[in-house]
Here is the input.
Amino acid sequence: MLVIGLLVAGPVWAKQLKLDSMGGCGRTYRDVTVLAYNATDVYFTYKGGMTNLKLRYLDPALQERFEYDPIAATAAEEQQAAAEERWKQLMVSNMVAKARQAQLAAQRAASTSEDSLADPVSRQSLIGKTTPAITGEKWLGEEPELKGKTVLVAFWAPWSIPCRKYVPELDRLQKKFGDKLAVVGVTSEPETEVAEMTEPKVAFASLLDPKAQLGKTVGVTSIPYVMLVDAEGVVRYQGHPSAITDKQVETLLAKEAASDIASRAAAGH
Here is the structure.
């Protein structure tokens, strides 16, 4: 506040005016060295430190020496009060901004980890949330058992060249991880078109979803697109399939295996 008073009221810097004492507001200051004064205050050092006094509290002789004008002082004090209020508002605003920044940083830190394939960037993201029901109009072949398994849901279309290129990789993942991983292809194209695609051969479970309801729920905007769901039904990744590597799947399966062992041990099995 002392600094604000100096800046707002336009100080006159004194030439090391020294006084044996100076009093005001019921207190006397000793060994005074006046540093500056303005329309409202005199600023000085004294035996105990540094402070300021309102000119209106000084004796008339000192008021005259510091050019005290009651009218000018009142106007300056009003200006100082306005400046102090702006300063307080700025401090509060800065504290609120810092608190919000700290809260956001904590939320972001809690939502990511070294093992994450991806992190949510919007409220619409399913990452970290329970997967929607994997249902459609018809399964091509036998409906797979998904409960308790890691599931890789792949949205694709037989007419899409990038999708057809990725089909062998999906087959490979299914074969490599066997019963621990269930690969499910989901397409909104007619069954006849899927049947007409003989190369590459689709060896994983396929679900027809003509109205693309599951894709809309997941937020699919381009294909190929995958959603990786852990054994607890929590979405761990959604997006382009290039992020899904053997290492990522192995890490997720290893965690689930460790969790299952711990659960069995706690249950006494």
Residues 70-110 form the longest helix (41 residues).
